[in-house]
Amino acid sequence: MTDDTAIAALLAAGQTGFSNALFTHYAESGLTPSEFVVYSFLTYWTQTHTAAPVLDDLAKQIGMPKRDVYAIISSLIQKSAIRLVTQPDAQGKSSDRYDVSPLIARVLTLAPATTKPAPDASDVFSAIEIEFGRPLSPIEQQTIGGWLNEDHYDPDLIRLALREAVLNQAYSLRYMDRILLNWERRHLTTVAQVQADEQRRNQI
């Protein structure tokens, strides 16, 4: 390949705009190296596409297990580095995309974020996707992230709710959410407590 051909190929590939503030204040961003890599790829994606990426494709492009990408995106949302927005496309249909501007706004004011994602989050995302037999949508990813990071549900409890949903052939996060809320109202916060409650009910 000649120099001219190489330059032409480089120009044809395009460029991604990236704020220098993200590098200058990386230490204050509160992101781990892996989170910063995923954030960088999401930045590229938002500048070259109109909708959120399919995580299978994103994971392959990054060279990272998909379940790790799920967990990292959930953490980025929790840390207010990105947010999920819905907007109409050219045909007037709603589509989801990731807005990467919140992190830039924060580092410009030097406000650190130290919230860490819930443990075992990646396994929860993967387990639900496997049982549902399809990739999770961005909205579904956000819902699961909310269970882990905002509601602070035990990952094992979410897996138990998934099992209950599958046994009832209800492949829906809404159904799982009703199960989790029912347990929460009854102050059942661990798998052991749920199982003990079921045993007690069966003995009545």
TrEMBL record:
It comes from the Bacteria. Residues 125-197 form the DnaB/C C-terminal domain. Residues 19-111 form the DnaD N-terminal domain. SUPFAM superfamilies: DnaD domain-like. PANTHER family: DNA REPLICATION PROTEIN DNAD, PHAGE REPLICATION PROTEIN-RELATED. Belongs to the DnaB/DnaD family. This is DNA replication protein DnaD. It comes from Lacticaseibacillus nasuensis JCM 17158.
